[in-house]
Inverse folding.
């Protein structure tokens, strides 16, 4: 990693976090949406405690929803408010992508641990394998951040960006949902620990692949021809 | 030696050519005014020269250190003028005096104010400061005097003259006052 690239990534992360802390759009949307989903699920299963398998699926759904409604925004908003051109003038495309994707990772990891903690506390399910559960939340958050950042970059310049981001997210995030449920189920004590470990590796691999492929993609949409 | 060389440059959107076979060279000390009616391709040409668009035909040799400011270039509304300057400096890897550069365009008193609260003229001044922060060899200005008061216009003239001393300037405009600064003119359309 050369110093100018690293400096650009740090500058983009700083700018993203600063604008996010001021607008609070992502935190508010992800927090509200995820929290309401968790509350709805807890109320729905009030009379009978959900099984660990169902609880894993419910938590995964809450995290996927909060990621899909929030994270593509970091890419799309530049296109919508016209600031994408300033970035084009100042930054390397890969540095801009990584800066934004890293911000999404930070945001999603934060949201996952808050929502995961609230959910487990409210449904009162024992976490049988805490390390697998925590790593499951972490890798699921990173995979969701990687996938949604990729979606965001893919729809830059499109007319119906948000609709397209949702459509593109569906096939991209199905494997993440599948692996995330397995990892969280394992963390809650369902099935073999080895299955959970394998899905953790797969989720981490997915996050790495999307983060590595993103710069190639953004380089293609960088010039608005 | 030419700072910028444009040879056989052409751009089309769909099947419609905006311009084609453009040829010019730009040397140190020159101010080129690109004039023409609305839709003649003035802004498109400047966006190509800035590297924001690709031409469909021709070649372009341009310096690596280049500044660009345009009326429709957006800024981040949540960030302050000072934060814009700091961000641009970090991304470009240059050191600069924030107070000095913002004072140069008359924005020192609003350096800590979010750009979302700026008027169009104040944004234009900030864009000029951003475009010249890294001492570009060629400065590209799209409608630089639009929406500016007399004080703002004086800032633009002073900036153009400063860049002209070390490099060259290209202005896309139909403004009579801006055209008086030109050493050459290129008419499109």
């Amino acid at each position: 990693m050369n110093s100018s690239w690293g400096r650009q990534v740090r500058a983009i992360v700083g700018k993203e976090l600063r604008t996010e802390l001021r607008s609070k759009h992502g935190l508010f949307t992800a927090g509200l949406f995820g929290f309401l989903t968790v509350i709805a699920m807890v109320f729905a299963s009030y009379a009978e405690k959900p099984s660990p398998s169902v609880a894993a699926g419910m938590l995964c759904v809450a995290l996927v929803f909060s990621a899909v409604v929030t994270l593509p925004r970091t890419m799309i908003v530049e296109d919508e408010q016209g600031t994408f051109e300033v970035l084009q003038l100042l930054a390397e495309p890969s540095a801009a992508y990584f800066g934004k994707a890293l911000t999404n990772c930070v945001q999603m990891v934060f949201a996952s641990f808050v929502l995961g903690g609230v959910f487990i506390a409210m449904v009162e399910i024992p976490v049988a394998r805490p390390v697998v559960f925590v790593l499951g939340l972490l890798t699921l958050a990173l995979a969701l951040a990687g996938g949604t950042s990729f979606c965001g970059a893919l729809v830059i310049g499109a007319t119906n960006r948000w609709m397209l981001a949702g459509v593109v997210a569906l096939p991209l995030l199905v494997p993440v949902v599948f692996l995330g449920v397995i990892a969280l189920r394992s963390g809650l004590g369902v099935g073999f620990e080895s299955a959970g470990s394998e899905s953790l590796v797969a989720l981490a691999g997915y996050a790495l692949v999307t983060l590595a492929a993103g710069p190639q993609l953004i380089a293609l949409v960088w010039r608005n021809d | 030696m030419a700072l910028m060389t444009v040879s056989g440059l052409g751009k089309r959107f769909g099947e419609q050519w905006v311009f084609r076979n453009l040829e010019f060279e730009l040397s140190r000390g020159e101010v080129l005014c690109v004039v023409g009616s609305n839709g003649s391709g003035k802004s498109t040409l400047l966006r190509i020269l800035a590297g924001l668009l690709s031409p469909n035909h021709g070649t372009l040799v341009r310096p690596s250190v280049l500044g660009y400011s345009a009326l429709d270039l957006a800024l981040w509304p949540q960030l302050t003028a000072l934060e814009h300057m700091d961000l641009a400096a970090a991304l470009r890897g240059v050191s600069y005096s924030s107070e000095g550069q913002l004072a140069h365009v008359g924005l020192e008193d609003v350096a800590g104010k979010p750009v979302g609260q700026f008027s169009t003229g104040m944004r234009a001044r900030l864009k000029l400061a951003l475009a010249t922060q890294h001492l570009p060899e060629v400065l590209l200005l799209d409608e630089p005097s639009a929406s500016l008061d007399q004080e703002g216009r004086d800032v633009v003239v002073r900036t153009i003259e400063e860049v002209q001393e070390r490099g060259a300037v290209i202005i896309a405009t139909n403004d009579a006052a801006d055209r008086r600064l030109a050493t050459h003119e290129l008419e499109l359309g």
